[in-house]
Amino acid sequence: MVSSGSLSESPELPVWQPLTFGGVASFARARWGRLLLLQTIVAAFVVAAGVVFLSRCWFPVMTQATQDLTAYGAVRGGQLAWPKTEAVVLAENRFLSLVVDLADSGATGQVADLQVEFTRDRIKFASLLGYTELPYPVGWAIELNRQTLDPWWNAWRPAFLFGGIVATLVFLFVSWFVLATLYALPVWVLAWIARRSASLAQCWRMGAAALLPGAIWLGGAILLYVGEQLSLVGLGAAFGLHFVITWVYLLGAPFHLPKKSRAISATEKNPFTPASPAPPGSAPAAARSENPFHSPPPSANNG
User: Fold this and answer.
1) Which of 28, 190, 199, 230 has the fewest CB atoms nearer than 10 Å to its CB?
2) Bridging pattern class, strands 96-100 and 114-118
3) Residue 74: pLDDT over 50
4) SS3 79
């Protein structure tokens, strides 16, 4: 005998890890606080990778460059005043290079993944992933000498690091919220096609959980890049793949949701279940009297 309830009940899934399809699907029925806690843990990992990147790749070059500046240098009226005419490399490593080249001669070449070049009237940013340039602000007066810039950088370096942490956290949570909102409806449609039980709010939580494996992947790629185990091109490829990882989880996770339940009403009968015999002396069922091929029972008055 089939009782009312779900025809196919899925076992309770652990709601702590988003690294499997079932783990992502389990967040559809998790509490909001648990999802937020896991997002915070993943965000902390990505931020830690960013802090390691800044501390080991960019900040040492900036510190060395401020110490090696000349005693004279400034930007006035949108023009850089510099005591030397030849191109000079202030500081560089594999990741970042800071160059002053008033004539934009390109004499220093490029060995770093990102080269920042100060020319007479603009700043150039060049890397394997692209190239852009910005003019100096005309109304600003910027001191580019050792006496001014070196103590200023040493005083503000912790603030820049803290600002990078806050900006990364804000960017992660805002982007996760926006992407989960965009993914909620397609995930709900996919769950409906797969005949799985899920509301839009549950699909939003599942979409938010599906973003976390890609974020973990990207954080690991940043650490590999810092350790010089991954090139800049490889880092760019890893950034693109972290979107693909999210889409794979979004496509697979709905099929691990519980199947839709179908309640069986009290009046619904199973045609393959034999009818229970009527108790002695009871009146025949109405369905039997309606059968044209069923002969009526003999009357008690017939001899």
Assistant:
1) 199
2) parallel
3) yes
4) strand
Closest alpha carbon to 73 in 88, 59, 60: 88
Q: What is the mean pLDDT of the chain?
A: 81
Looking at residue 300, the DSSP 8-state letter turns out to be T
Tokens of 296: 């009526």
CB 162 within 8 A of CB 101: no
Domain residue ranges in the chain = 21-54+154-256, 70-143
The helix/strand/coil state of 232 is helix
Q: How far apart are CA 206 and CA 250, in angstroms?
A: 8
Model confidence at 95: pLDDT above 50: yes
Q: What is the strand order of the sheet 142-143 is part of?
A: 79-81, 74-76, 142-143
What residues contact residue 209 under an 8 Å CB cut-off, 6+ apart?
Answer: 18, 23, 24, 27, 35, 38, 253
- Residue 89 token pair: 């490399």
Tell me if 119 sits within 8 A of 106, measured CB to CB. no
pTM above 0.85, yes or no: no
Tokens for 254?
A: 């709905």
Question: Quick one: CA torsion of 158, 159, 163, 166, rounded to 10 degrees?
Answer: 70
CA pseudo-torsion sign 151, 155, 156, 162? positive
108-153: pLDDT as tens digits: 778 889 999 988 888 899 888 778 888 888 878 888 888 888 899 9
Distance CA 37, CA 112 (A): 38
Contact indicator for 66, 149 with CB cutoff of 8 Å: yes
SS3 172: helix
* Amino acid identity at 152: W
Interaxial angle between packed helices 146-193 and 200-226, expressed in degrees from 0 to 180 and rounded to the nearest 10: 140
